[in-house]
């Protein structure tokens, strides 16, 4: 009997303890992925962070990935001061590579997530090889949307990339009388969803400009998707929570309920409040073995 108990305890410490400690926090909120810090309003564990960003970020082999309805994107940077994320995806065209065949994700956010996440106004989407029947040229929401520059970036400059010499761009007139252009630059706000299938496009590129002056050419643009994020309503609550040593989160059974996670218990105010029985965590033998007992 003693041998079985020793074997069981050995199994627990060998296989379960490392997993319990790998999260780095008693309440399971991770704060990093590779070299990126994952802080509020984002999180990697259910119940942590802002409910508007639930099921959004995943850490896969130390690579931070963002997943929305249009697909998965690698997170290159999170700028908490300017509230922005920089994303990349392998099937997006750049100045050195044109990716066609509708393999690119584009950018489509779930409707309920739209108040929290959208591309920046200085981000240009350049839609490639779109059909003449595309809403871009036949009318979108009852009106014609001309292709235009965004933040000083557009297709006329993009055509200057050496890779276009292999394709041979066609620069059509303003009324597209000679057929649609091979590239149409547009702002995200003009169409809301960059859905390649719905827009009848074969590919896309996305670039943003952080410099105060216009860059010399498309080879100096930053290619990727720069996304702004916002927090709706509970910043005061979270500041009070963090000031008392807690982490801001939400009830996984009621996404509208904000919680302050205080290690072994959750509070509806902050960690200086007295925990009620309903918010205390039930400690078990497994918690004691993994060193998580208060």
Automatic annotation (TrEMBL):
Keywords assigned by UniProt, alphabetized: Signal
Top-level taxon of the source organism: Eukaryota
Places the protein is found: Membrane
Membrane topology listed for this record: Single-pass membrane protein
Entry GO terms, CC: membrane
InterPro entries in the cross-refs: WAK_GUB
GO molecular function, one term: polysaccharide binding
Coiled coil: none
Record bears the keyword Acetylation: no
Pfam family membership, one: GUB_WAK_bind
Protein name in UniProt: Uncharacterized protein isoform X1
Lineage: Eukaryota, Viridiplantae, Streptophyta, Embryophyta, Tracheophyta
């Amino acid at each position: 009997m003693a041998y079985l108990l020793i074997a069981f305890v050995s199994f627990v410490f060998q296989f379960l303890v490392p997993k319990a400690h790998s999260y780095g926090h008693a309440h399971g909120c991770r704060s990093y992925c590779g070299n990126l810090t994952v802080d509020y309003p984002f999180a990697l564990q259910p119940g942590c962070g802002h409910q508007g960003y639930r099921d959004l970020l995943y850490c896969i082999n130390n690579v931070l990935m963002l997943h929305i309805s249009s697909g998965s994107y690698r997170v290159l940077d999170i700028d908490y001061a300017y509230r922005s994320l920089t994303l990349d995806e392998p099937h997006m065209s750049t100045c050195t590579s044109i990716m066609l065949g509708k393999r690119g994700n584009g950018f489509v956010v779930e409707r309920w997530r739209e108040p929290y996440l959208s591309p920046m106004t200085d981000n240009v989407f350049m839609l490639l090889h779109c059909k003449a029947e595309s809403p871009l040229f036949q009318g979108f929401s009852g009106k014609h949307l001309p292709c235009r520059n965004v933040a000083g970036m557009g297709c006329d400059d993009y055509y200057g990339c050496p890779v276009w010499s292999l394709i041979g761009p066609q620069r059509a007139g303003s009324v597209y009388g000679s057929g649609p252009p091979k590239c149409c630059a547009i702002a995200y706000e003009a169409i809301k969803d960059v859905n390649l299938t719905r827009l009848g496009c074969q590919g896309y590129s996305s670039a943003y400009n952080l410099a105060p002056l216009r860059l010399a050419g498309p080879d100096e643009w930053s290619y990727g998707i720069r996304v702004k994020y916002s927090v709706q309503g509970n910043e005061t609550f979270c500041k009070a929570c963090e000031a008392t040593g807690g982490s801001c989160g939400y009830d996984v059974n009621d996404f509208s309920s904000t919680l302050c996670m205080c290690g072994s218990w959750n509070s509806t105010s902050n960690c200086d409040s007295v925990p009620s029985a309903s918010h205390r965590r039930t400690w078990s033998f497994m918690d004691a073995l993994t060193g998580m007992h208060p």
